[in-house]
Amino acid sequence: MRDIQIQTTSACSGKCIICPYLDSWHKKHPGRMSDVVFERVLSQLAPHALGKVCPYLENEPLLDPAIFERIAEIKKRLRFTSLELSTNALALDEAAANRLAELFADVPHEIWVSFHGVDKRTHQGVMGIDYERCLDNVVRLLKLADEIPLRVIIRGAGQGFTPALRHDFEFSEDDFRRFWEGQLAAHGIRTRPGINWIRYHDRAGTIRRNQVRLDAPVRPDLTGFACPRLDRWLHILYTGELILCCMDYHRETVFGSIVERDLDAILAGSAYAELSGMVTGRVASPDDFICKRCISPGG
User: Fold this and answer.
1) Packing angle between helix 131-147 and helix 94-104, nearest 10 degrees?
2) What's the predicted TM-score (pTM) here?
3) Which DSSP letter does residue 163 get?
């Protein structure tokens, strides 16, 4: 049973200083998953019992004008344990929130909201998008969750894994929790969301602008290395290509195209076998191989 991430559009409205998106391959090669490719993805996944299905990957899913119809098709045609959607809330207006609630309320799910800040200065400093608009949209969603069974998790990346990753807009876990407790009280919100303060990392060195370079890879030897992204996940770009993991913002690890070959054939093929060997150290890999650079295996 695998968890699935599907990038139905390359676009993201965020300009987050902690994210590689602005440097990414799909930012430089913009596109949207065609209906033909999306149909192919569904037909290839349909025979499998799936875990979590996430209709996003390194993007802002609400920028796909067909995202709600596509989620409805996922619900209709795939067998899965839960749905997950992650959004920066900029496009989460009233119509989008209502449609999202309608689609998610009757299945196990989580709606992740990225809100990296505790005031206008920190939020806009990290994310580069409108603080008031995002806050209003999140509050509206939380009020909706008082009436409809929605599992909302607000995530704030407030501090770096290492001192080398620090910036001027960091905030503490106490500040983050205090901010959201204040919002819940001020707006009379009864149903508590998840409030998750997390540490951000460098996405396996894929933030190429203003990037702190390491003198050596995090792990020069991958012998015995294990990461769930290899054999418990599938990551599908808008092109239909499969990549190793959610850290691969530069299309470094493509091992097949679901448009050109059946999924089962790709997973049984030589390209995936070689990549698997590289990840686990059974096959030699370049010094700059993505897993050697990663400080946060799994995500």
Assistant:
1) 40
2) 0.96
3) G
